[in-house]
Amino acid sequence: MADSTGITEATVGVGGAAESTDMVLNIGPQHPSTHGVLRLRLVLDGERISRAEPVVGYMHRGAEKLFEARDYRQIIVLANRHDWLSAFSNELGVVLAVERMLGMEVPERAVWLRTLLAELNRALNHLMFLGSYPLELGGLTPIFYAFSEREDLQHVMEEVSGGRMHYMFNRVGGLKEDLPAGWTGRARQAVAKVRSGLGRIDDLVSGNEVFRARTKGVGVLAPETVHAYGVSGPIARASGVGFDLRRDEPYLAYGELQDTLRVVTRTEGDCLARFEVLLDQTRNALELADACLDRLAELPPGPVNQRLPKVLKAPEGATYAWTENPLGVNGYYLVSKGDKTPHRLKLRTASFNNIQALSQLLPGTLVADMVAILGSFFFVVGDIDK
């Protein structure tokens, strides 16, 4: 259209044509120093998400293939790294699979020690998300409290294993070595200190009006989606799916801890419920740790591992072991051809299954709520990409 000056103007993208045009938005991939390299491909209809696709694989390191080139002692160093917040639990699943293949019994003292350290590792994992999730929604203070509590647990974990993040303390047949002198007393003090500190995080976050407004009723995950996608752990239990291997298929010493073990559930299935489940589960992990320390005090001194041959070979066959890791169910499918290295070791990680449910959950939600929903899924990207 030409005006009186002779200049021609064109107006583009108004009316029905603009309203029917979808916007494709890429969230990520992000730098590894943030929450990890995950990409979400979102199709938007105005401010609402109409389609969502999690795109994974940016951190893939081929751990499952590398298992095939290392013997049964060496694969532990790979196993404890995919979920770097749950290193002890990752090691544990692998050695349980190998021990099952060998038909090996582990000394009782090692069983209780493994259970104790697994629960301390669970609390460490959960404290990270209890601090980082409010941070993603604009709350800075809780992460300082969470890291303060984490340091208390990190000290005792580092003292017993020598490792700060990747403990390398599990061995086929038990544990690397026995406890340092006086360690159980220091562990009790750390557990008590963290338990008292959880109240600060609860007071700061759970009753905060802004936090509740951003999370209550937001990102509701239906139980049907939980079952369809194999979602597990705190996310599934926040939607009312009360599955927990520690209760439903006990391993280690959990069969004797049923009076202490609480499977925490909610029915709302929203972001707030997922946070509340994580907080209550942390409290229960500390209760289980205290129960393990009580039991260890009653046990007589004894070995914490089995003597193994110089070259360890698993018999030909296949086995499957699974554990209730902090983020959900981890599975370990081990195939052996009688050699000193696994023929195949397939990992079923909790984060991988959990994150797939976003393709069902995000459509229909607002872009502004996407960060709140994504953060409430408590995933580790290395656990997705392996």
Give structural notes:
The protein is an alpha+beta fold and 386 residues long. The protein contains 16 helices and eight strands. The protein has helices at residues 16-19, 63-67, 75-79, 87-102, 108-136, 141-161, 183-205, 209-215, 223-229, 234-237, 245-248, 271-298, 350-356, 358-361, 370-375, 381-385, and strands spanning 23-27, 39-45, 48-55, 170-171, 174-175, 317-325, 328-336, 344-348. The N and C termini lie far apart (58 Å). Mean pLDDT is 90; it is low at 9-18.
Q: Residue share in helices?
A: 40-55%
Task: Report the principal-axis shape.
Answer: globular
Average pLDDT, rounded to a whole number, is 90
Through-space gap between termini: 58 Å
Unreliable runs: 9-18
Number of helices in the DSSP assignment: 16
Quick one: how many beta strands? 8
Secondary-structure-derived class? alpha+beta
* Largest sheet features: 3 strands, antiparallel
Q: SSE order, as H and E?
A: HEEEHHHHHEEHHHHHHEEEHHHH
What is Rg? Answer: 24 Å
Any descriptors?
NAD, cell membrane, 16 helices, three-stranded antiparallel β-sheet, quinone, 386 residues, globular, alpha+beta
Structure in a nutshell:
The protein has 386 residues and is of the alpha+beta class.
Blueprint of the fold:
Blueprint: H1 16-19, E1 23-27, E2 39-45, E3 48-55, H2 63-67, H3 75-79, H4 87-102, H5 108-136, H6 141-161, E4 170-171, E5 174-175, H7 183-205, H8 209-215, H9 223-229, H10 234-237, H11 245-248, H12 271-298, E6 317-325, E7 328-336, E8 344-348, H13 350-356, H14 358-361, H15 370-375, H16 381-385
Helix pairs in contact: 4-5, 5-6, 5-12, 6-7, 7-12
